[in-house]
Amino acid sequence: MDVSFLGGPQPQRGVGIVAPFDFALDRELWRWVPDDVSLHLTRTPFVPVEVSLDQARLVSEHQTLREGVQALCAVAPDVVAYACTSGSFVGGASGERSMTAAMEEAGEVPSLTTSGALLAALQEIGARRVAVVTPYTKSVTDSLEEFLGEGGIAVTGRSYLGLTREIWRVPYRDVVDMARDAVAGDAPDALFISCTNLPTYDVIPQLEAELRMPVLSANQVTVWDALRRIGKQAVGPYQALVNEAARRGPVAMNPSPALPLSRTEEPSESAPCADPAEQPVRPVEPEAALASAGAESAEPLEGYEQGFPSAHTDEWGGGSQPPV
Length: 324
Description:
Blueprint: E1 13-19, H1 26-30, E2 37-43, H2 53-58, H3 62-72, E3 79-82, H4 85-89, H5 92-107, E4 111-113, H6 114-125, E5 129-134, H7 138-150, E6 154-160, H8 172-182, E7 190-193, H9 203-211, E8 215-217, H10 218-229, H11 244-247, H12 286-292
Parallel strand pairs: 1-2, 1-3, 3-4, 5-6, 5-7, 7-8
Helix pairs in contact: 3-5, 6-10
């Protein structure tokens, strides 16, 4: 049978990803990637350490990064990204730059890290004041705030869970609750959801519509920056960073104190001939927005215990933390 008419396969650009050994969200990364780009993932060696500053240092050692990049060189990626937020901010701004340099030296290919991509994304959207959401402990969250401060970014509020393992099991509902707490204080320019192991893809459009500000996440900025380095555009459902139309939509509007974060009362009847553009914009319910975005259930995943003990609120969190 002659199949010459099929042609192809179509040429692909390659993005190499060095991820920590416990990274569990490969599929989420792919959701931002256009069809003519392939991701090539490798992982750092296993270390028996829970999520902490110590783990962040171990998975970001220069020799570990060099070995990961060299393993990826076999498939000749056009760019390499280190997909770990804490691992790339734990050494501060100078540490992030030296990591990038070590990766580029090892593979002779443009390289980036999640934390470096975050600063680039904040510059892209013109944000200098951010609210922060993390699944980390207090000490790791403090380290993120210090890194942002070095980059000239002020943290206006934050919320964290205090988790040390299985972060990928956190449901969207917990992410939404933390986001609301983090932005409740001084008005930020944007919200950042940290950790490449925290699911965020489907929740970003809902939060942007509700909070009326750009929402960035670790995986989003990593893929966005890697793709733009090779002249490609990330894809995503109405997300301000990757969709110009989204920046001109609700995220361009300041939050209105007159409107609650959730719909708590029936809308009043408007005049029959009123211009729809003049009608007040009501925030979107989380469940409805997630359903319309094709999100998976926001119910906690099997084996994941929602809520955390409150006896250790200083270092280990204890549920959603108030802004500080």
